[in-house]
Amino acid sequence: MKNSPVLIVGSLAFDDLEMPSGTFEDVVGGAATYSSIAASLLSPVRLVGVVGKDFPESVLSDLRARGCDTAGVEHADGKTFRWRGRYAPDLGSRETLDTQLNVFADFRPKIPASFKSSPFVLLGNIHPALQLEVLAQVEKPKLVFADTMNLWISTEPKLLAELMTKIDLLVINDEEARDLSGIHNILKAAADIRKRGPSRLIIKRGEHGALYFDDAGAFFAPAYPLEEFLDPTGAGDSFAGGLVGYIAKMGDTGHQTMRRAMYFGSALGSFCVEGIGPRRLLEVTRGELDKRMKAFTALVETGGPVVLPE
Ligand code: AMP
Description:
With 310 residues, this protein is an alpha/beta fold. The protein has helices spanning 31-39, 57-65, 128-137, 150-155, 157-164, 174-181, 186-195, 235-250, 255-272, 279-283, 286-300, and strands spanning 6-9, 13-19, 22-29, 45-51, 68-75, 81-87, 94-100, 120-123, 143-147, 169-173, 200-204, 210-214, 217-221. It has a domain at 29-44 and 112-298: 3-Layer(aba) Sandwich (UDP-N-acetylmuramoyl-L-alanine:D-glutamate ligase), CATH 3.40.1190.20.
């Protein structure tokens, strides 16, 4: 069914970002925030997460104005989750300086009754036990996407192994793929991970693009080349949001739609990095997205099959 809603579960946060261009504090962030902003350009979103008393209501009303149902955002007594990161001068890597779970520490996702039949589910990077709790509450989604991180790969291998058997698509970066499989070669790591459950797998490689694996084989989508590159925070989550938003819009989960969705994910990731926090992403219009997709197509279009000349 076209124009299907996407259920997105994950963190809503305040981020403190130490960038080469300066330090930016109290930036509204969180994986679910980035994914929801990106997905809502293409499809209706149903958001589930938790915020504290300090989280601005205006952020939630802006999300609602974009077609994002925030009925699943719990308002807890306390402070919102906070993450502080410092980026390398070339923005190619970062270190986490501080993570304050705050209201996230006691978060147990409660999926509103009206969200339970969502055909597409994106499980943002949260504790795998909570990701499993979400899956126990939803009714037969068409496709379940999940993200995870090194922390859960090392501390919760059993729960993660269980999660693998219950999802359709895992989205991780190359370092996480190596940690999860224990295999350095990316193609071998991908094959190993797919054997553990998810029939589809995406391995993100930052500015070097992303690989998609399914039964039809491997597929590559480059990152869109940019002149202005300010802040990579949330690019991966924007990628995942754009990807699932496109699939839900098309209502089709076939491998060709998936391959095209990779380009939408990549385009949304590229908008994300053009501003500090989600600033740029929030301003993107459908017209700008359309323009970037055309530029992207031109970038990879060869005008015909690339074959060896006679
Ligand atoms: P990304 O750059 O795509 O990895 O996502 C960055 C976002 O993830 C930031 O906005 C953070 O608030 C959020 N984040 C960082 N650490 C965690 C964590 N342990 N659990 C959930 N969200 C997190």
